[in-house]
Amino acid sequence: xxxxxxxxxxxxxxxxxxxxxxxxxxxxxxxxxxxxxxxxxxxxxxxxxxxxxxxxxxxxxxxxxxxxxxxxxxxxxxxxxxxxxxxxxxxxxxxxxxxxxxxxxxxxxxxxxxxxxxxxxxxxxxxxxxxxxxxxxxxxxxxxxxxxxxxxxxxxxxxxxxxxxxxxxxxxxxxxxxxxxxxxxxxxxxxxxxxxxxxxxxxxxxxxxxxxxxxxxxxxxxxxxxxxxxxxxxxxxxxxxxxxxxxxxxxxxxxxxxxxxxxxxxxxxxxxxxxxxxxxxxxxxxxxxxxxxxxxxxxxxxxxxxxxxxxxxxxx
Length: 316
Description:
Blueprint lengths: L2 E4 L5 E4 L7 E3 L6 E3 L10 H8 L11 H46 L3 H30 L7 H25 L10 H20 L4 H28 L3 H32 L5 H39 L1
Antiparallel strand pairs: 1-2, 3-4
Helix pairs in contact: 3-4, 3-8, 4-5, 5-6, 6-7, 7-8
């Protein structure tokens, strides 16, 4: 039996079994090659590969192990391609989202929102001063002080009108806020509530207590809607202090409103004689003091919130 020998130059030739273990000369390049014994010769890899992976159309069945490895490799390649595609998509979406955020912030700084918040801030300050003046007039008149009179009352009333006008104009300027700001629709709702409150106040003319209550409730609705907008503004600008302050003022305002409604309920029960006047009057008075004090605290916090917004917007 002949032994097949392959030289490094690529020439294949055969030698006799007697040459096993000896060095033979390549007839092509003349290199010396050691002949391996036939008993330990290993079948060449191409032949084994041909057995394990038969050509298409062959009737010889393929090895299950080989098929399993090939299928697993194919699934792995497909999975890695899918992950790579998803990663590229997520990075592209993230870039688009960041670009949209930058455009929205640029549009915000070009809007009239900073000016509107400034107008609202000064309107609120004037309104608080006017309210303090009116309350002082009422207390002095109840104490029997003469001459505390009409000029100061008229001046305080005019200050209230100016304050309301400044705040409404400020909200109108805030309508230019980009729609990407969470709660930006609260500005429009706040203006709607203000409009109805003004109409109710004109229709009241001091003759219908029920309309006065409705006007106050509409004012609270306007207050809540604009606070929702300020909270969303803080989140949009990534100013956590503003968002947290707006949320705290909102909840304190709702608590104050609840106490006021309970006080009105007690007063109505006293009028209908369903509870004794002394008990109802005492409870109503205590609730009025608590609700009034909390209301003043809410206004102070609200003014501080608007001041924070002005300062943050002037720096950005």
